[in-house]
Specification:
- The complex is a heterodimer of chains A (348) and B (347).
- Chain A is α/β, with parallel strands linked by helices and 348 residues long.
- Chain A contains 13 helices and eight strands.
- Chain A has helices spanning 5-30, 45-53, 68-74, 78-85, 119-132, 151-162, 182-185, 210-227, 255-263, 266-276, 281-304, 323-326, 337-342; strands at residues 60-63, 109-112, 139-144, 167-173, 176-177, 180-181, 202-206, 231-236.
- The radius of gyration of chain A is 21 Å and the shape is globular.
- Chain B is α/β, with parallel strands linked by helices.
- Chain B has a seven-stranded mixed beta sheet with strand order 3-2-4-5-7-6-12, with helices on both faces.
- In chain B, helix 10 (230-246) links the parallel strand 10 and strand 11.
- In chain B, helix 2 (24-38) runs parallel beside helix 9, helix 10 packs across helix 14 and helix 11 (263-273) crosses helix 12.
- The chains are: A alpha/beta (348), B alpha/beta (347).
């Protein structure tokens, strides 16, 4: 794929930002500023950035829960993402979602979702809405290799095919669904071949090859936009860290296997490309420093952002105007609901 | 306690100009037709809603009138098309998803509970999900264990959802329209046994039944029966029977909404009668009647002259044989016995 050096440089900076962000997120998690689950994507930067690069500005995106990188690549600010991980009001979900539930509808990003494959039917619905609204965009729906064994995968591919919906299912095959390898989980280990069951076009590419990813995603997204042709894109990649921060990632694979992948690091591969294009080592090093500065600023921002007020506990749960509907439920409201939920305004 | 009087069900349904007598099923269809005509964002989808005219004929004729984009047949794929409804709603559409019976909603439970119900809160109010799911509950036609269930309590116990359960044709129209116009996910519980029930229905296209407002379906002074959906119809029959046979004046509260639940109207009635019988078609353990009993004892503790009684489906998977099915249903005899017990007259 022909790509201008300046563009490639921008993508490289995004990859650096994601890697640096994830490294810092793990550090902050261990410092107990981040709680809950925290699924890192270190090692998957080429797949993430290449696929998002293929999106038009008004295309839509949904993802699973390993979503920090996708949010950042789509343009959610590191500040808004870090503040969300910290559970602060300036987070992209105002501290309600955390690591797995990042979003920004203004950027067409309709969520990180936490139930494996649950986002797939929703992606088909977003695509259906695009069709009904006669909009020419497409939906990119990210999922992991574990999701292809769920019923929602089959139902969604079938609906996308029979209704001709503009959605591309992006399978991030990082070789393990939690700790279970693709070989142990799937009768067909080349996951893209499953698309044949629904007569959908599909490709499998090296997910650590940024340009190959961007090229394949662009082609399939174009088919979705122009011909309402749903498709499957399998990106073969690898996650360096465990399933989540709580998993050391060594019970089901060896240190040697991880090191083998790190030797072929996708970020280093793009650095080599840029070096071939004449970008100096000094400039390349400066980009890493820039990423580190952005992430440090994001941490500062998140630390300064306040925790949500307890009085806003019920914020957003119901649409504005709902409080009147709930007013007659107040008598006998149990378990502090009266003070916490009803006094919290139910979004009013 | 201060209480806004709930309007009697009859006020909205009889004696007014601009009403027509129709079945519950036809009232639902009228609501769909009016909302499809009013708002281009509204579309209907589900199994057999189009070419087949609806498994229970609620959507009869709508495909012909509005076309396949507005009235969309789906494969047998509940998780897929309920989720598609969620996604379309997130992008501003107004999907009305029909699930053939509530039993089949269980295979889409992940989309309803883990997804639709979470969107508003989990994403900090950044995106909404104005989805309607309509589905009948109920039992009584020898449909047996997998097709004779009433799970609305599960959904009504889930923050983030709204659940309504009309008992009359007028409210079938009014609540379905309110659900479609609502900005949150609303589950509309219909009922297999009352699709054919007839009543007066307002023809005004702007008529809606407010969500969160119960109705006094029958006024009385001696005992309060609290019910929803088909249990309301049974309760009204029992109230009439008891008036005839025992001279008992039973008040029947039709909840109409389960979440939000109109505790005020229930409490005002129990404060007056001092006795409550909660009736539902579902299993009472952990059910709607359990929730009602808890609320009533909390709010009306000083008013009660008897323990709150509950009547629901016998706690077995519904059997096939007619005699067994009849025994398991919360039939009028069982409701009557509970009312008499509450009044110290039976058992």
């Amino acid at each position: 794929m022909a790509i201008a050096t300046a563009t490639l440089q921008g993508l490289y900076e995004q990859m650096l930002l994601i890697r640096t962000f994830e490294t810092e997120a793990e550090r902050q998690y261990k410092a107990a500023r981040i709680g809950g689950y925290c699924h890192l994507s270190s090692g998957q930067e080429a797949a993430t950035v290449g696929a998002i690069h293929a999106l038009d500005a008004d295309d839509l995106l949904v993802t699973g829960y390993r979503c920090h990188g996708f949010a950042l690549a789509r343009g959610v600010s590191p500040e808004a993402v870090m503040a969300e991980l910290f559970g602060r009001v300036d987070g992209c979900a105002h501290g309600r979602g955390g690591s797995m539930h990042l979003l920004d509808p203004r950027l067409g990003y309709y969520g990180g979702w936490g139930i494996v494959a649950g986002q797939l039917p929703i992606a088909t619905g977003l695509a259906l809405a695009l069709v009904r609204q006669e909009r020419p965009q497409a939906v990119l729906c990210e999922l992991g290799d574990g999701a292809v064994n769920m019923g929602a995968w089959h139902e969604s591919l079938n609906l996308a095919a029979v209704w001709r919906l503009p959605v591309v299912f992006l399978v991030m095959n990082n070789e393990y669904g939690m700790g279970t390898s693709v070989e142990r989980a799937s009768a067909v280990t080349e996951l893209y071949r499953r698309a044949a069951a629904y007569d959908l076009p599909a490709e499998r590419v090296d997910g650590d090859d940024l340009l190959a990813v961007a090229q394949a995603a662009a082609t399939l997204l174009e088919g979705a936009r122009e011909d309402r042709q749903a498709a499957v894109l399998e990106l073969v990649t690898y996650r360096y860290r465990g399933h989540s921060v709580a998993d050391a990632g060594l019970a089901y694979r060896t240190r040697g296997e991880i090191d083998e992948h790190i030797r072929r690091d996708p970020i280093f591969r793009v650095r080599e490309l840029l070096a071939q294009e004449g970008v100096s080592d000094e400039e390349l090093d400066q980009m890493l420093i820039g990423a580190e500065e952005r992430v440090a600023a994001a941490v500062e921002f998140a630390l300064a952002s306040p925790a949500p007020e307890v009085a806003t506990l019920a914020r957003g749960m119901y649409a504005p105007g709902s409080a009147a509907q709930f007013a007659r439920m107040l008598p006998g409201a149990p378990f502090g609901e009266r003070a916490l939920v009803f006094a919290g305004g139910l979004g009013e | 306690m201060s209480t806004m009087a709930a309007p009697p069900i009859a006020a909205a349904t009889t004696g007014l100009d601009g009403t027509a007598t129709m079945s519950y099923r036809e009232a639902l269809r009228l609501a769909l037709r009016e909302e499809l005509a009013r708002d281009p964002r509204v579309f209907v989808m589900g199994e057999e809603v189009g070419v087949f005219d609806g498994a229970y004929k609620v959507t009869q004729g709508l495909l012909e009138e509005f076309g396949g984009d507005r009235v969309r047949d789906t494969p047998i794929s509940e998780e897929g098309f309920v989720g598609a409804g969620v996604g379309a709603a997130m992008l501003g559409e107004r999907p009305v998803v029909e699930i053939m019976t509530i039993n089949f909603l269980l295979v889409a439970m992940d989309q309803v509970i883990n997804h639709a119900a979470k969107i508003g809160a989990m994403f900090g109010g950044e995106v909404r999900c104005p989805l309607v799911i309509r589905t009948p509950n109920g039992a009584g036609n020898q449909l047996t264990a997998q097709h004779s269930q009433s799970f609305e309590g599960w959904f009504a116990g889930t923050p983030g959802l709204k659940v309504v359960a009309p008992a009359s044709p007028a409210d079938a129209k009014g609540l379905l329209k309110a659900a479609i116009r609502d900005d949150d996910p609303v589950l509309v519980i219909e009922n297999l046994s009352i699709y054919k029930e007839r009543g007066e229905v307002p023809l005004d296209p702007e008529f809606v039944t407010p969500i969160g407002l119960a109705a006094v379906a029958r006024a009385g002074t001696d005992v309060t029966l609290v019910a929803h959906s088909y249990a309301t119809v049974r309760a009204l029959h029992v109230a009439e029977r008891l008036a005839q046979s025992h001279g008992i004046s039973a008040e029947v509260i039709d909840l109409r909404s389960l979440r939000p639940l109109d505790v005020e109207t229930v409490a005002a009635s129990v404060a007056k009668t001092s006795r409550a019988v909660c009736v539902e078609e579902g299993w009472p353990s952990y059910g709607v009647s359990a929730e009602l009993a808890a609320r009533i004892q909390h709010v009306c503790f000083d008013d009660l002259d008897a323990p709150v009684e509950r009547v629901g489906m016998a706690e077995v998977p519904m059997p096939y044989a007619k005699a067994l099915e009849n025994a398991a249903l919360p039939g009028e005899d069982r409701i009557e016995a509970a009312v008499l017990a509450t009044l110290g007259l039976g058992r």
